[in-house]
UniProtKB/TrEMBL annotation:
It comes from Pseudomonas ulcerans. Coiled coil: none annotated. Residues 1-21 form the signal peptide. The keyword DNA damage does not apply. This is Cache domain-containing protein. Pfam families: dCache_2. The lineage of its organism: Bacteria, Pseudomonadati, Pseudomonadota, Gammaproteobacteria, Pseudomonadales.
Length: 285
């Protein structure tokens, strides 16, 4: 993937998250968020002290590169001014010139946030050069005059332990109030949808999806017909496991909603009052 194509992917994804830009909050990634914000604050202080002479520091290995974290700066005309990462290839270039009209509008909206001292955040999918794949990234940024200083980090994938914990939470809710729980799942309620984790539920009597936290179009579909992205009959296999067991698990290839790519997924199953509750996690392999 070329640097220009990668930047276009960034802007396309950013267009869908502009409305989410807001002061950062404490969450499961608090340690990474604090680290990123600390580096951003350091860069802002350096820029406030030295002005544009600080840009050269941002574009080399040193105080403003912390592991996979690095500072990058664009101006409000759309020119990349500094980068401590792979986007250094764009320094001095008008990134707006390589975008189509829709992406230009989205990019300009992002870089024209007011200079009001606010640190804003957004999430988007971005090409991870180290892993050679698109992964979810969180960016923190602040505008200073006609400069926008930013830093971002790739968000860790959810673990099998987190997937099992969410499955148990959903199962407990199904026992108490199944219909209300199904509604929450189908509405992508944040309590039951965490990063790349989401639940789905199958009615064992009808053998059809009754809730899905990622693909609502599957609701009402015959679960037996479900196949992995490489064609394996995973619906039939999950139902077979649930015939004689309260719990089960199955690995298969499926689309990760956070990366948009087909990845290996392990799904954990639990039978609850005539329903199968399932939550899976992605390994990216």
């Amino acid at each position: 993937m070329s640097i220009y194509r990668a930047f276009a992917v960034f802007c396309l994804c950013l267009a869908s998250v502009l409305a989410m830009a807001q002061p950062p909050s404490t969450d499961a990634y608090d340690a990474e968020s604090q680290r990123a914000q600390a580096l951003l604050a350091k860069a802002v202080a350096r820029y406030q002290a030295r002005g544009d002479s600080a840009l050269a520091e941002f574009s080399r290995q040193g105080d403003f590169v912390d592991g996979e974290l690095y500072i990058y700066v664009v101006d409000t005309s759309g020119v990349m001014l500094a980068s401590g990462g792979s986007s250094v290839a764009l320094v001095g270039k008008s990134v707006v010139s390589v975008l189509d009209d829709d992406l230009k509008v989205a990019f300009r909206q992002a870089i024209e946030e007011p200079d009001d001292g606010t640190v804003r955040s957004a999430e988007y999918r971005w090409w991870n050069w180290q892993h050679a794949k698109v992964e979810r990234k969180r960016v923190f940024y602040r505008r200073l005059g006609d400069r926008v200083i930013s830093v971002g980090y790739y968000m860790p994938r959810s673990s099998p332990e987190q997937a099992r914990a969410l499955m148990q939470r959903v199962a407990d809710l199904v026992r108490k109030d199944p219909n209300a729980t199904f509604a929450l799942i189908n509405q992508h309620d944040k309590q039951l949808t965490q990063d790349d984790l989401y639940a789905f539920v199958v009615d064992l009597k009808t053998q059809r999806f009754i809730a899905h936290g990622f693909l609502p179009r599957l609701i009402g579909i015959d679960f037996k017909s479900l196949r992995s992205t490489d064609g394996k009959p995973i619906g039939q296999e999950m139902l077979r496991q649930m015939e004689n067991h309260e719990t089960g698990e199955l690995g298969y290839l499926w689309r990760n909603p956070m990366t948009g790519q087909n990845e290996f997924k392990k799904t954990f199953l639990q039978r609850v009052n005539g329903y199968v509750v399932a939550v899976g996690c992605y390994s990216g392999q």
